[in-house]
Design brief:
The chain is 43% helix and 14% strand. The chain is of the alpha+beta class. It has one domain: L-fuculose-1-phosphate Aldolase (3-Layer(aba) Sandwich). It has a seven-stranded antiparallel β-sheet, sandwiched between helices. Helix 2 runs parallel beside helix 5 and helix 4 packs antiparallel against helix 6. The structure holds zinc ion (ZN). The site of zinc ion has 7 residues, from loops.
Amino acid sequence: MAGCWQAEKRAVLDASREIAAKGLVVGAAGNVSVRLGGQGDELLAITPSRKSYHELAVDDIQVINFDADSIEGDQVPSVESMMHIAAYRRRPDVRAVVHTHSVYASVLAVAGLELPPIIDEMVMSIGGGVEVTEYAFPSSEELAENVSEALGERNAVLLANHGVVGVGADLREAITVCELVERAAQVYVLARAMGRVRLLPDDVVATEKELFKMMHLAESC
Ligand SMILES: [Zn+2]
């Protein structure tokens, strides 16, 4: 019998296939979720653990609450469920969380280098540079706490020796944030390899951060 939230589960499935098709993850790596209900609600639909995106069906998407208890579905929810929940708890405005292992973002995460504000689009969509968390074991409570802390008011964070988390008001925004982090990371790695990186001027970054806040405050009203 089809349960509730079919449209939301379908959207999570489509998003997970999209990040696989775009090469942001391989196999069953990474995970995708969406907040169910209104702003601040404590329920989410999330990809299951250990299933390749190519073999996922709508009913494999799990519905869980903020204690990670199963509400709907018979698969094991993503092992990173607590990380998603931590992002939703930290940011009531966030409605979607996408976690990928894209290559250039992972290069920075392995090097322990934060991604500074180098491209205008990045500041307006992410809210500034992207910090790298302290290292924590995948699926651990510590990783969830580190993500919540390093995310702050911005829309992305790099996980040390691991990958990226992007958040947004919907799945489209969270995927775009992950793609943008990957693109900016690629530009940054190549510019560093050339031996020269010029950051955006401080006053421009300050103005763009204000624009980011205005756009996101407007969206959450
Ligand atoms: Zn991961």
